[in-house]
Amino acid sequence: MQKTLHSVKTFLQSVRFKKFVKRLGFFILGCITLIVIASGALSFYFNQNKTEIIAKINTKINENINGKFHIGDFQYKFLTGFPNFTLALKDVELKDNQWTTHKHTLLKANEIEVRLNIWSLIQNEINIHKILINDAQIYVYKAENGYSNANIFKPKKKKTPETTSESGTTIDQVDLNDVHFVLDNRIGHKLFDIDIASLKSKVKYDDENWQTDVFLRTNIKSLAFNTVHGSFAKQKLLQGTFAVSYSAEKEKIDVKTENLKIGKDAFDIVAFFNLAKGSALFGINIGTTILWQNASNLLSANISSKLNRFNLKEEIDVNCDIKGDFNAEGDPRIVVQAEVHDNELSTPDGSITDCGFKGIFTNNFRPTAGFNDANSAVILTRLSGKYKNIPLTIPQLSINNLDKPLATGIVNSDFDIENLNEENTEKWINFTEGHASANLKFQFDIVDLYITKPRFIGNVNIQNASFHFIPKNVRAEKINVQLEFTQEALLIKKIAYKHQKNTIFIDGRIDNFLNLYYDAPEKMVVNWNIYCPSIDIRQFLGVLASSQKKKITAKKPSMSNQLRTAIEKCIVDISIKADKITYNKLTATNTKAQIQMIDSRLVIKNGSLQTSGGSINFSSTVSPNGKNYNFTSTAQVNQVDIASFLKSFNNFGVTSFSPGNIRGKLSSNVNITGLINSNGELITNSSHGNLTFNVTQGALLNFEPIMKIGKFAFPFRDVENITFSDLSGNFKLRGEQIDVNQLTISSSVLNLDAQGVYSFGRGTNLALTVPLRNSKDDAQLATKAERDAVRQRGIVLHLLAVDDNGKMKIKWGKKDK
Asked: What processes does the entry annotate via GO biological process terms (predicted)?
């Protein structure tokens, strides 16, 4: 190593090397001297020929324009651009012939630096090698009538064989610094407004064709293809290198760039611009990998205002294709395609996790309907993800007409229904187990980007569902449901509902479901067919209870509260059949009825059942009243065992006798109202209405009021065991009191007629008519007429049964007294 260093040092100190350095120095000095002399000569040449050069430039420019070209001053730049001749044009203005009409100056520059080829200049030709435009404004204007101030340049004459060899003026290089460029196209409502910080271009010519690489650094103020809708990439910094080529045969410019920076994101762009006369077609294809929000913010306001309501958490692969005509009004054709994998999609209605799809946006969904929002569509294919832990698969989703968006598609899902609890923010229903699968065609409106009025056609299967319906405290276990949505109705099939010890089999139908569910749920009629092997009515009274009212702050409607509203407002029409029904102590068989549930009211029509050895036909209405229930009922009772029947209804609140005091077959017509409690028991003294009855094969056993009268009037007759040939009455119930319009007793002990008021508390005032004759053998008479003829014979007592400090007192007297 030391030997090598010693050799180098010896060489540098040698005479030979010193001579070389000396000669090299003289050579460099000579070159510098030559450049200075040449530049001085050029400066001398310019000063001597300035007038002629200016005249040639003006002539050259004016030969090619229809307008006015103004230069404030010329300067020669010494040594700049050597060996070219560099000329600086100060305060340059270029105006077209109609400037006074539109007032838009095509070019206004503080300085334009022009470098001329020296050898061409010596030969009296102007050949511009390079143009540098500094601190300038370029405004290209196109009026509504098609006129453009850029038409200032005269068309070139076509070359002839005689002029083919003549050399023309070419510009090899163009640089722009601090140039404000505006393209204002009033025909198509297009406005391109950019601040060019730097543009550098070197042009290579091939006859009339040329190509160049353009480096551009600019800030985009407006890139509006339709000024009504706003600008693309507004206020974004753009920087990159463009490969630009021009084909004279096609009269078209092609542009290609890779890794073009727009803001912080990189883009690959391929574009073309048609320059043929009468045509201004263009096409731009953009590809990138970008975040959703960044991509949305590059689009025009009419699109980004909608897209910004959505978001994708991870980057997506996007390709945007824009094609149009600069001379055409309205938007160009825009097609955006995106690939999404393992992403999270945020929407105004919630988030979809594990999301993947292929998406296409087009503003020309129907090819003949133009490029506008009404003809725009978003098409998603192979969409999959989880919405609030509910897995969704949508083969295709189309959102058409972005003015009034309508979404259509098919959705498939398979999930545990406990996941539905997350959608139920109001906690009105709680699912504890079960599984659901769905295959549905859907259609829904999108209002302010929220899903509105979703409509479905298809089927939903639910297995082993258990839930708690909180507003009415109803619990259900292990329910299976099949739902089929059609255009005409919602069909509800194969429901097996278990409630405590009751099992109910249900199927149903809701006609015109899709229209009424959202617009008029109060008109929606749910038709149920219910079969019950065995049921306890009292356990279902809670279903009628009014839901607890909560103050809910105004917010957007959700699928959950929409469903709750429909459930609470709809009319439920039930056709019920039960093998066995129990109600308190009443047991009935072969029960049939038509039941409607309207606004928390239970309306029973055409009811029939068999009980206590007879039958009952009935209609009734039950509605909540605080913690109790109002009821209105009409009934026709046919030949039921009176003791068993009274026992079933707690003797209707009568305490003066018990069902054990009476026997026989009861027939009755009842029209009453009253109250029952939450346990289904009649509230004492709440009944009002009319009651008529007739008892056959009757007997009265140990009935205290009659026994009191018997001991007083008939001490030798059997008043403890009385049989009846006739026992009938007509009563009006008034709560605690009963108006006895007519009570007829024809018995083995005596005959008795009663009229007046009987009270369960105080206020009893009954007029009793009691013939004293022994009526024991009256039942042997063949006809009622014969029995009536002997009924009032002999001595007749007129007694009053009146209230005496809460006890019944018998005294002499008639009703009118």
From this structure: regulation of protein targeting to membrane
Distance CA 407, CA 387 (A): 17
Among all chains, which residue has been given the structure tokens 């020296």? 118
Give the largest Cα separation in the chain, rounded. 180
3-state secondary structure of 747: strand
CA distance 764 to 759: 5
Exposure class string for 259-277: b at 16+ Cβ within 10 A, else e = ebebbebebebbbbbbeee
**348: how many CB neighbours lie within 10 A of its CB?**
12
- Location of structure tokens 């064989």: 161
DSSP for residue 166: S
Q: How, if at all, do strands 601-611 and 586-598 pair?
A: antiparallel
Q: Alpha helices of 269-311 — where are they, by DSSP H?
A: 292-296, 301-307
Query: Over the stretch 578-611, which tens digit does the pLDDT of each residue have?
Result: 888 877 677 888 888 887 777 677 888 888 888 8
Sorted by sequence, the CB contacts under 8 Å of residue 48 that are 6+ apart come out as none
- Cβ neighbours for 545, distance < 8 A, ≥ 6 positions apart: 472, 473, 600, 624
Q: Tell the residue number behind the tokens 């149903």, with chain if given.
A: 508
Distance CA 183, CA 656 (A): 105
Please tell me the distance from the alpha carbon of residue 237 to that of residue 778, in angstroms, as a whole number: 118
Q: Which DSSP letter does residue 41 get?
A: H
Tell me the residue length of the chain. 817
Helical (H) or strand (E) element with 24: helix 15-63
- Give the pLDDT of residue 548: 44
Quote the pLDDT of residue 549. Answer: 46
Task: Report the distance separating Cα 418 and Cα 433, nearest Å.
Answer: 6
DSSP state for residue 434 in the 8-state scheme: E
- Given this model, what pLDDT does residue 632 score? 92
Question: What does the alpha-carbon distance between residue 645 and residue 586 come to, in Å, rounded to a whole number?
Answer: 7
Pull the structure tokens for residue 485: 């949505």
Instruction: Tell me the C-alpha distance between 654 and 154, whole Å.
Output: 116
CA 299 vs CA 164, 226, 320, 340, 363: distances in Å: 48, 12, 10, 19, 13
* Residue 518 identity: Y
The Cβ of residue 812 has, within 10 Å, a number of other Cβ atoms equal to 9
Asked if the bond preceding 332 is cis, omega within 30° of 0, the reply is no
Say what the pLDDT of residue 448 is: 67
Segments of the chain scoring below 50 in pLDDT: 163-168, 544-555, 817
The whole-angstrom separation of Cα 417 and Cα 213 is 62
Q: What are phi and psi of 623, to 5 degrees?
A: -140, 145
Q: How far apart are the first and last CA of the chain?
A: 154
Q: How far apart (Å, rounded) are the C-alpha atoms in residues 438 and 456?
A: 11
Nearest to 200 by CA among 253, 240, 259: 240
C-alpha span between 557 and 405 (Å, rounded): 18
Measured distance CA(405)–CA(415) in Å, rounded: 29
Under a CB-based contact definition with an 8 Å cutoff, are residues 602 and 557 in contact? no
Distances 646 to 124, 666, 779 between C-alpha atoms, Å: 133, 10, 26
CA torsion, ordered 587, 592, 597, 603, to nearest 10 deg: -80
Token pair recorded at residue 346: 């945020």
Per-residue pLDDT, 13: 66
Q: Which of 342, 340, 370, 343 has its CA nearest to residue 357?
A: 340
Q: How far apart are CA 451 and CA 310, in angstroms?
A: 13
Provide the 8-state DSSP code for 515. Answer: H
Backbone conformation region of residue 379, classed left if phi is above 0, alpha if psi is from -120 to 50, else beta: beta
514-to-405, 535, 566, 585, 747 alpha-carbon distances in Å: 19, 33, 12, 44, 66
Token pair in block for residue 559? 């699928």
CA 683 to chain centre: 49
Report in angstroms the alpha-carbon separations of 205 from 126, 171, 199, 270: 17, 10, 19, 21
Give the span between the Cα atoms of 625 and 675, in whole angstroms.
9
